[in-house]
Amino acid sequence: MNNRGQTLIIFVILIPIIITMAALVVDIGKMNYEKERYRGIIENSIEEYFESNQISDVKEILTLNGIPEDAYQITTQENLIEIHLTTSVDSIFAKLINIDEYQIDLDYVGTKESDHVIINKKE
After folding, report:
1. What are the strands of the beta sheet with 80-90, ordered from one edge?
2. How far, in Å, CA of 30 to CA of 37, rounded?
3. Do the Cβ atoms of 116 and 50 come closer than 8 Å?
């Protein structure tokens, strides 16, 4: 009996699975990259707030980095600023399985104690 075609059949079955996994890795990598980029923007905005004490400077940083004004909420109190960002990132390959975008929600709180700015992720 000739078993030469078995490897070809296994290869043909595994190719779509490998391509799908690679596509999901790219999509998840893009989502994580954007999430870290937004986290950095928020942290810089919080630090800028404590340098200038102006909410307009925070809004300017967020706007210059392409974050629309309806995507974030800023709450301030004495020595405290809270930024909540809700945005979405378009998927590249997950559109094939009806996932058009990934939702990103970030909540960060900044406080100033002495001369140090402390930034924490809000749970």
Report:
1. 72-77, 80-90, 101-113, 116-121
2. 10
3. no
